[in-house]
Specification:
By secondary structure, the chain is of the alpha+beta class. It contains 7 helices and 5 strands, in the order ααααββββααβα. It has 2 domains: about 80 residues, Arc Repressor Mutant, subunit A (Orthogonal Bundle), CATH 1.10.10; about 60 residues, Dna Ligase, domain 1 (2-Layer Sandwich), CATH 3.30.1490.190. About 15% of the residues are buried.
């Protein structure tokens, strides 16, 4: 695990939420917190089942949804049909590659301080804000230059 304090923090959040701390939940959290690719439930399952062959996809999926609903992890923007998960609950933003779907974290204080318009604040309940930039990641940008295509679509 990248950060041992992340596991302790996770356990404390479980206690605060009255969630049992089970070996399956710990394994799922550890797999997610070590994977900053913003994986979907299937990605987490495929990795975790190698070490825990008795765990089901349903357990992994329900546990990830539970963690997200408890604020222990977040949902990441996804342009596909599958939900993707983000273990970093601290303020940060994303660059989403329009070609490969990769999501890259970045940090920017100015974006953290963007004011929410009154038309939104007065009408909705806002729980957070995150800037999402669409573009080409470094790998797709390099491939794009080779192909001579300026927008990332074929």
């Amino acid at each position: 695990m990248k950060n041992k304090s992340a596991l302790e923090s996770f356990k404390q959040k479980c206690r605060d939420s009255n969630l049992r701390i089970t070996p399956q939940r710990i394994a799922i959290f550890q797999e997610l917190v070590n994977d900053y690719s913003h994986p979907c439930a299937d990605d987490v399952y495929r990795k975790i089942v190698k070490k825990n062959p008795n765990i089901s996809f349903d357990t992994v999926n329900r546990t990830l949804l539970l963690f997200a609903n408890q604020g222990m992890i977040k949902f990441a923007e996804s342009y596909g049909k599958t939900k993707r998960f983000d273990p970093d609950v601290e303020s940060h933003h994303h660059l989403c590659c329009i070609r490969c779907g990769r999501i890259i974290d970045f940090y920017n204080k100015e974006y953290d301080e963007i004011k929410i318009p009154n038309s939104i604040k007065n009408k909705y309940t806002v729980f957070g804000k995150r800037v999402v930039i669409e573009g080409l990641c470094d790998k797709c940008k390099t491939k794009n230059k080779v192909k001579g295509n300026s927008y990332g679509t074929e």
